[in-house]
Amino acid sequence: MASRGEFEGQVAVVTGAARGIGLTLAERFAGAGAAVVVADRDAGGAELAAARIAEVGGSAVAIEVDVAEVASIEALVAATLERFGRLDVLVNNAGHARFGFGLDLSEEDWDYTHSICAKGSFFASQHAGRAMAAAGYGRIVNLSSMTAPLGHARYVAYSSAKGAIEAMTRVLAVELAEYGITVNAVAPGPVETEFAKAALTAERRELRLARIPVGRFGTSDEVADAVLFLARPEAGWVTGTVLAVDGGYRAHGATELRGTPNQQATEKESKA
Q: pTM for the full model?
């Protein structure tokens, strides 16, 4: 967890920061002393988020951005540099997806998902990375997902986009290291957000909960803890990594916890 003042004098850009995990990230960076750019395609939501941060003494400005459009990303970086003269941290949090089985998914749904998640993260990293390279310092943290390495049905567009983010994280970490820039990713598991609550049926929620060894969903603050760690100046020797923040979801295989039917059957077989 970052201490108050740890990012004093730094400027952090967080995309998709009007709500959910992005809003928590923006609030946490501001609480640790950074001037925060609340970047979101929902201009009104971004303004409200920036005002909320300012009300508690933080420094924040809202900038409208559509990460699916390279020109919009370029304008975001230019506006940040014009306003603050620097850009120290970029968090590629913005993401959205359309879901469907592989045999049914349309070209439009594929392009929509990849444009926001993969394309947006790359070109934001490219444009912010150029400014960071000129300064000789930077921290880029990408938001991946627990679904990237796993075969979740109906998630082919989203999972492949997040897999691309993890691949580009490794490549950019190698390419940008000489400029004093680290590039890492955080892969959250099931987190209690408004979007997740709306997207999951009660049945799917229970299925996911059964796979989490720690026995509960995560919080936005727990994801933010990991992001802020990777964004710290002291994390300069951590680069090219994907940090799973998922309560063991990614590590868990078959669901055979004590007391479940599968485990009871296994115990009977072992005694036979």
A: 0.91
Amino acid in position 129? G
For residue range 223-267, list pLDDT tens digits in order: 999 999 999 999 999 999 999 999 999 998 655 555 654 444 444
pLDDT tens readout for residues 13-69: 999 999 999 999 999 999 999 999 999 999 999 999 999 999 999 999 999 999 999
Active site residue 112: no
Q: Which is nearest to 2 in space by CA: 188, 244, 232?
A: 232
Q: Return d(Cα 114, Cα 95) in angstroms, integer.
A: 9
Q: Of the listed 112, 137, 155, 158, which one is catalytic?
A: 158
Q: Which of 173, 169, 177, 207 is nearest to 190 (CA)?
A: 207
Q: Strand pairing partners for 245?
A: 188
Which domains are delineated in the chain?
A: 11-266 (3.40.50.720)
Does residue 25 contact residue 91 with C-beta atoms inside 8 Å? Answer: yes
